[in-house]
Amino acid sequence: MSDIAVPPLRITDALRFGRVAVLLGGVSSEREVSLNSGQNVLDALLAGGVQAFAVDGVPALVEAIRAGKVDRVFNIMHGGDGENGVLQGLLQSLGVPYTGPGVLGSALTMDKIRTKQVWQAAGLPTASFVRIPAGGDLLAAVRTLGFPVFVKPSAEGSSVGVFKIEGEADLAPAVAFASTYPGELLAEQMLTGGEFTVAILGDLALPSVRIVPANGWYDYHAKYIAEDTQYLCPGLDDAGDEARIRALALDGFRAAGCSGWGRVDVMRHADGRFLLMEVNTAPGMTSHSLVPKEAAQVGIGFEDLCWRILEQTVPEVAGR
Description:
Layout lengths: L18 E6 L6 H17 L3 E6 L1 H9 L5 E4 L10 H9 L8 H7 L2 H10 L7 E4 L5 H8 L3 E5 L9 E3 L5 H10 L4 E5 L5 E7 L2 E2 L3 E4 L7 H5 L5 E3 L6 H17 L5 E8 L5 E7 L10 H7 L4 H10 L3 H4 L2
Parallel strand pairs: 1-2, 1-3
Antiparallel strand pairs: 4-7, 5-6, 5-7, 8-9, 8-10, 8-12, 10-11, 12-13
Helix pairs in contact: 1-11
């Protein structure tokens, strides 16, 4: 990808980072994935000479900060308080630098419905959807959109609680889930033109990845377990399309109040339009994860990637 100019590292001495807590695990539904991601990040930082150590969950992090053991935090705690603004507000109040977007971007993008509302207000394209409040009428929402649709929680990740509904016969599991789920759901137009994701690293939108799951649906199994999911990077053969999807992802990331690093998921409509879907503010860093795949396309290896993310916590590098 010769059109992507990767800047040189701005910090070359690992001691500049001080003691880095790699925050992982936690209590969300994405705990196991976070433990995997966190171990990979920890290994990469240690290999680079960073004084890094693992911390499992927010209470343990608070104790480490109180004990004076933490200079900055590499947040790789997926879901829950790791991505909903709670952690970010805590660390900001305590004056502890951390990776990833701040309070606003984290809180907003954890809520898929309100992220999409912001994009709509900003004139950015996103898939049609209907909000389903807790205890709301899922069937009516699905019928409003028309089949096929996805039904998903507004504030979960890793495809937790997502249902693919192609007709009335597929509704029962989603209705059963909705009857016990305490939060909001959304019914969302199913798009068939291709599934893509674009990683954001500072001001760079990295090459897109097109995701081609063997069973046609990128569910939890396809993300973290299956070995037959295809990841095509760059995801688009046409240079113009590739430039457009990267620009849209960066616009969507910024419009949602995000900075630092993250990942923007995009779908393509059958008519060729790209539509924003959601933002991940602490993306996976497992062997199946997509941000490292995109970074590798522009010559950024995994250790280099982790270093560059951590660099953003140093004020003169982050520009804040």
